[in-house]
Amino acid sequence: MIVSHSCRPEARATKTCRKRLLAGQGLYHTSSKNLEIRMMRPSRNGRDCTLLFALCLGFVLLVPPPGAAQQNGPTSPDDKYPENPTKQENAPSGSARLGRLPIEWIIGPYIPVQERLEPLSNPERGQIYVRQTFLTAGSYLARAFSAGIDQARGEPHDWGGGGAGYGRRYVARYGEFVVQNSMVSGGNALLGYEPRYDFCRCDGFWPRTRHAISRNFVAYNRSERELRPQVPMYAGAFAAGVLYNTWLPGQHNIWRGGAYNMLSQAGIGSGYNFVSEFALDILHAFGLKKDVKRGP
Q1: What's phi and psi for 129, nearest 5 deg?
Q2: Is 293 among the domain residues?
Q3: Which residues contact 194 (CB under 8 A, 6 or more apart)?
């Protein structure tokens, strides 16, 4: 049976009709509220189930199965954080880290005494170029020395002194080195020259010193037996010096700059070869790289 709560238009103003309308509105609100409660119950039940499932899953993941504590060992705070931890086990010392570095990272690619000289392929030359230019500590130290000389001379004057001036000079010198080594590597590949330093197959301080200095001026050609003048090295040094002086602030004689860079290559290059020749002896004196031998 459907109960109507409507009134005729002409009877809406009467008191009886107003009561009927209010009763109908109350029934509507009561019905809608009951329907909303019914609709919310499943969603609340779903959230409760989801929360219960999450708690169970977290319990399973966090709580180890029986016997896991015995297999993994004790997990007490005293075991995790011992009272007197040993630094040697947790982190190697500085000398140990240095001893683990490949010797090529310190002095660059080299030829051991016992290794037979063989012509290099282009991919091998590319790897040597990357190591010599970017992955050798000696390259960065040599540029730091050159920047120090420029700092002492006050060149260029516009860069001033202090740390900021030295930083600009260092970056400029390293950029010059990248250009120079790129030209030298290209010239060596074109002429078939050996780009690596070969340890002296001799003994004695002075013979090894003469060998180290001479390798800054001559290199093996494609035969790996005949020595030829280091034309690519000094041509690259001159060209890089000219370019270096073109981008410096102020007025500079670019030709004199190229000649100065050639003299720097003669001096610093000879010193670099000297250090490379005796690098293993120096490392052995400090107890490093004892497993790496210069000769058989």
Answers
A1: -60, -45
A2: no
A3: 111, 117, 120, 188, 219, 220, 221, 224
